[in-house]
Amino acid sequence: MSVASFSLSVSSRGRDFSIGGSGILDVVGIQALRQAIEDSCANEGASVMLDLIGVTELNPEAVAALIEAGDFCRDKGIAMTLSAGPDFLRVLNDAGYNEELLPL
To answer: What is d(CA 77, CA 98) in angstroms, rounded to the nearest whole number?
Structure first.
């Protein structure tokens, strides 16, 4: 039996960063994703697009880490958008957050 892991990709065009992820967003995956988000948001004037449509499963720790990463970017004045599937968004909504990782 094989276990799907988390796959992360980061690309940039100038100061526009696109961060993609797919698979199971576990503890190791969220650490890599959060680091990629924070690294991107460290660039003054950046924008960050998270494409997590391919995430098949996430846990509460992943949601908390994403929210913290979103706060990190907002504190630096960096725009961040999230594209995710309905199950992912439902977990965020159940945790009290919207697709911009802001409280409902």
So the answer is: 19
Query: How does pLDDT run across 58-70, given as a tens digit for each residue?
Result: 877 888 888 898 8
- Do the beta carbons of residue 1 and residue 22 sit within 8 Å? no
Q: What beta strand segments (E) does the chain contain?
A: 7-13, 16-25, 47-58, 79-84
Q: Confidence band (pLDDT; 50, 70, 90) for 3?
A: low
Residues 6+ apart with CB under 8 A from 14: none
Residue 3 half-sphere exposure, CB side, CA atoms within 13 Å? 6
Angle made by CA atoms 103, 41, 13, in degrees to the nearest 5 = 120
**Domain locations along the chain:** 7-94
Residue type, 85: G
Fold of 7-94: Transcription Regulator spoIIAA (3.30.750)
